[in-house]
């Protein structure tokens, strides 16, 4: 039995898969603590782990980022950079302080960090202890073979394409100068050499990276580090009953379209309103979730027959879904594909436009190329996905790859190997090797 510290940023999309990893580690007999925001402490405790809440670090609520970080919470590229700087980077030294105090109270054998939880990376470097990354968003490791992470672009082909990608990588380095300065200041505040680790490398353990996803969704690269392991996706939770009236409606003899904006960036005008306007009143069953606990209605008229709820048991819903219309959250995309469900993606900001591009290039869905599509665009995309068999065929192909993984078992095995080997790289052959 090992003593494990798990760190996770207090966002629902991060906490949900990380707590599934915690349940797996607890099931294997490990003693686990979870460093998270106070809003998620009860969920962490429900796994049998011991929650450790943010104390020195600002304990914020994802539903109102600007209450704690006035410069964050805005849409668009500048907003994404502000989120990274103020929410993820500039809180990391205080996260590390919390964790250092917890270490002094009771040391751990290994730390497992959400890929955007920099406090775990900093305290592990300071203590010289082994740590692992769980990448709960698409793998954002830069590569000489690819455009910069986060851009919705296919890898360039030929000399001109490779030159384009190299130029873009240089441009991103310039554009992220403020973020790099913030990291240097944060490292100094944590008692570390400000220049010892580059921004691109700071997010990932040098010993073990467990990436949610599969190579079938990733562009091939020749320089993937040997300690990166794709582990598939945890099964979506929730086998409780659906809301009253949903089950018979979803089982009616017509296609079911699930519409979701995930749990972050939940302005219903972005996707719910145009999707419902485009799909409502047609020979479809539209099942929409607002993503906000307590928001079981929408602030606009909804056609008869459209089902609305804050959240629903996903495992049950996806068994009955034919197409998902989504803003591109990674967890929701993987959950749909795990069920072989093709997608229509409207990615607005953060990593979502890049995820939309990944889905489109895989053949398993359509990228609407905007986060606020027209009703006509949503309806036309859903019609294509329902009538062209290739989308469902590609979604089933990816489902086979995802379901070939025992994600919980792989996390337990890999973390156990890191504990046994100490500060040694947990290696795997390239997933694209012949």
TrEMBL record:
InterPro entries in the record: EryCIII-like_C, Glycosyltransferase_28, UDP_glucos_trans
Pfam families in UniProt: EryCIII-like_C
Annotated Erythromycin biosynthesis protein CIII-like C-terminal domain residues: 301-414
Protein name (Swiss-Prot/TrEMBL): Glycosyltransferase family 1 protein
Source lineage: Bacteria, Bacillati, Actinomycetota, Actinomycetes, Motilibacterales
